């Protein structure tokens, strides 16, 4: 059994990562915090409650997190990929669940203390909430077993600039604070997420073989992904498939053995005109002052997709 604390800017691929974890037999989700990224943290919270309903999930606390990055200004919702509402403009019923009204850092620390040494923290959006928690509670990092973070790129081009990926570029300072915290961090970036694709064929298969308890979730995924693929096409992908960003990070949290990992001393570029949000690693004999971070550089993508799909039919 793996205990997860999940931090998400609940857009289309975040929601699929959540549905996957919610349907995974060996997972307990102790809480979900939301952050501004694909959409604002409040809307991400609304989406999260609806996703919990879709999965008939138990009463998992959902806490609304930071509304703005630490130093940047948020550029507004990424509607061309995630729709006006963050979930591909799919209209899901309003949820009767309510948020846990608690400061996000207090909640994160409370969970970290309650499950000290056990929690895997999975981040699917900018790292604002985690950085604020580390600033407020310097011991937070010591209580978390591992962080698995969707973001960054080492060898691939970026997706919001030539060199930067959306989550890390969304709050570079927060990312650098988390990188320098000394926590055990595995990043799952564009190096592996771009080449791991979910095809129309996969979704059609899921529609045929899904278990009955996943019917609503799979219908939702079909609709949300139709929108998402159109947005991805604008980024030069095909209409027949889309990259798996956040769902692959969730796979990495649960099945790290599928990934090839490199450890590097790493920092995040927090300034500059062209490179803000870029991951900078140093392999020189006398490297710069930095902590080691683990990077997923390759993945067994067939098995990763198979594990993802299996949660909905086994
Ligand atoms: C990341 O940015 C967001 O659009 C996705 O949800 C994912 O977390 C990919 O760069
Ligand atoms: Ca995300």
From TrEMBL:
Domain Inosine/uridine-preferring nucleoside hydrolase span(s) in chain numbering: 4-304
A single GO molecular function term of this UniProt record: purine nucleosidase activity
Organism the protein comes from: Enterocloster lavalensis
Pfam families linked: IU_nuc_hydro
Protein's GO biological process: purine nucleoside catabolic process
The keyword Hydrolase is annotated on this UniProt entry: yes
Protein name (database record): Purine nucleosidase
Entry keyword set: Glycosidase, Hydrolase
GO cellular component: cytosol
